[in-house]
């Protein structure tokens, strides 16, 4: 597939997640909530995670922001559902490397739609938009483990 076709496909995936976000809403039952914002651009997210015996059983978000931050939150919640906490954090670290323009590969973890965000690495000002939901998830996991 040519670079232009791949770039177009990636933009379509991002816009699909932005216009039709997955897992937007509220988690029922016991859950942890993390509120984060990106003051430089106004992106804001509230992430809710339901973790049971070390597994992310549910993940939902609400907030407002640019297409990058909201689509990243949609992709992230989709990717971490059903994952062990360690794997969700590993996925977050892989995503951070992707945002730095580094190649990432792990035969045990499939980033799926998340790879559509790799082009954000070319725009340093947008990296914080893309990583906001992921940082919220890491903070939630850290807070949960400290409790």
From TrEMBL:
Pfam families: NifU_N
Record InterPro entries: NIF_FeS_clus_asmbl_NifU_N
Domain spans labelled NIF system FeS cluster assembly NifU N-terminal: 10-129
UniProt cross-references to Gene3D superfamilies, sorted A to Z: 3.90.1010.10
CDD domains attached to this UniProt entry: IscU_like
Superkingdom of origin: Bacteria
Protein name according to UniProt: SUF system NifU family Fe-S cluster assembly protein
Organism in which the protein naturally occurs: Halobacillus amylolyticus
């Amino acid at each position: 597939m040519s670079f232009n076709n791949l770039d177009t496909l990636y933009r379509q995936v991002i816009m699909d997640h932005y216009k039709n976000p997955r897992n937007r809403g509220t988690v029922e039952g016991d859950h942890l909530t993390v509120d984060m914002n990106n003051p430089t651009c106004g992106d804001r997210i509230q992430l809710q995670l339901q973790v049971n015996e070390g597994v992310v059983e549910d993940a939902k978000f609400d907030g407002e922001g640019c297409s990058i931050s909201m689509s990243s939150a949609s992709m992230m919640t989709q990717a971490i559902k059903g994952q062990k906490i360690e794997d969700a954090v590993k996925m977050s670290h892989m995503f951070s490397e992707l945002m730095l323009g580094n190649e990432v590969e792990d035969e045990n973890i499939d980033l799926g739609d998340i790879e559509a965000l790799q082009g954000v690495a070319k725009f340093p000002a947008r990296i914080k938009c893309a990583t906001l939901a992921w940082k919220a998830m890491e903070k939630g996991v850290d807070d949960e483990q400290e409790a």
